[in-house]
Amino acid sequence: MALRIEDYAIIGDMHTAAVVGADGSIDWLCLPDFDSPSCFARLVGTDAHGYWKIAPAGGASAVLSSRRRYREDSLVLETEFETATGTVRVTDFMPVGLSHPHVMRIVEGLAGSVEMALELTVRFDYGDAVPWTTSSPGLVRMTAGPDAVALWHRVHPEGRDLTTVADFTVATGQRFPFTLVWHPSNEGPPAPLDTHYALEHTDVFWREWAGRCTYDGRWRDAVVRSLLTLKALTVETTGGVVAAPTTSLPEALGGGRNWDYRYCWLRDAAFTLESLMRGSYLEEALAWRDWLVRAVAGDPARLQIMYGPSGERRLVEWEADWLPGYESSSPVRIGNAASGQFQLDVYGEVMSALHAAAHADGAPNEAAWALQMKLIEFLATAWTEPDDGIWEVRGPRRHFTHSKVMAWVALDRAVCTLEQWPDLEGDLKGWRAMRARIHDDVCAHGFNEAVGAFTQYYGADTLDASVLMIPLVGFLPADDPRVVRTVEAVERRLLVDGLVLRYETSDAGPVDGLSGREGAFLACSFWLVDCLHLIGRTADAEAMFERLVGLSNELGLLAEEYDPFAGRLVGNFPQAFSHVSLVNSAFRLAGADPLTTVAAALGATPALRRAARAQSRRASRSRRSAARGSSGPANKRRKSA
User: The whole model's pTM is what?
Assistant: First the structure.
């Protein structure tokens, strides 16, 4: 049975991630990539759908207490179990830069002697494929179709009810290493790694990366953990950032609002770039920019709201009907039909992201600017059309206020780019005029005097948290009375237990086409923090920020939403958008300007920016070289874009 969402952690190698429970069980893992079929699916299924548990024998009743932590500023997870006879530590991590994905677990005796139990149930293809298992001294191999995994070990496993099990005793000072490695079934398994070296290499990699963060304020731990989470959700070879490593964790327990988030959303692009650049992660920001340009290249009219980790366009949605879902929240969806929606706001988000990247890089990228001109050309007529909105509603299209605001953002960023780099090609006069028309249209039709706020869509009296973006993107100044009244209206009508709902679900039937409620959306709550700060209510903003940080689990991880009625995290986990919003709010509360970039931290000269990028690239090559020295060619296995 799956645990509470907040009882999980992740480990990863920047190609995939394992979801590890506080009970010592890995309940979700897709191999070899984030969007590959899972081999462990107990998170949304049952024991029969795959898991890997290493814990004291006898189950929860044998454990007197347990605690877990990440090694300081790393993605190395340590879980300690105290029993009546002794204490044991399980260290979990995934080495980075290897040619095959490895999940490594080290069991170490800290005091006394502890009886341990290993249970390994591998089920490929989202729990549907039982592998053929063979065993030899020190090695168990499991194969089904194109996939195979090998377990390197130093115990005495046996098969029991289609599960590999092993009992062993750990005394003080003893260490038992276990390595599970994926490989194509037509190839042999990679040779086992040196566990000590792999652990130290992984620990140093993450700590050195975290050490580059320039934030040094009162919420540093939360900011660094959030940035580490974003790095863990970044595909090393392509630069794409997946929204979450999981699928179908429900937005309301027992409900049907369950979606596959193992893809890259364009709506997240500008926010992610902003958070990475604020943290001084220029290389990652520009890699995300390059992924963005490659993914959206082509016909602007066919721009998707999301793509696969390598830029894949076809994300066909289907249901794994043999999986009962997390706490019976069905269906379990694979793929995402929202990829085919028309969302006007993504054009603004892409333009804003590329504008921010130009600042970080010192000048607009030639290929990116050519793409941006095509996007603006498409928007000349498309901005007047109704769309599906930021929240991917499955009801009728409407003239959503946020969508129109983001169309304005697209024109504004294009105008600002031309003003800053006048040698670029572009219709400055025409774009300024179009920007003004969109602004006038939103002010005339998006603000409802009777409600006293910008509303969800033109002519509506319902509210939507996305209108909080109006001052954050510069559409109106924060001290504009309409902005202040909108923020106050959101507080009155969208707050539940002090947290922000995405929109009012009393009108859910005709607007989003879905039934049932959902939890409070954490990113929206961080937007309210930003708005409160901008309108001068900084004490309220800081209090709300503290509340939000306090909703993370003891490891600093956040899901997509929080259910104030159940008092639990809900939605896919960990959620990049929640962590991006946390980082951006922390920097805003610290007084950082929205256009602050890593260039400002390094100095304004192009030479310093180039030097920083070169140093970062050299560090990456050095890490990959070290990895090749221990395990063969780095990154050979991966898809590329």
Answer: 0.92
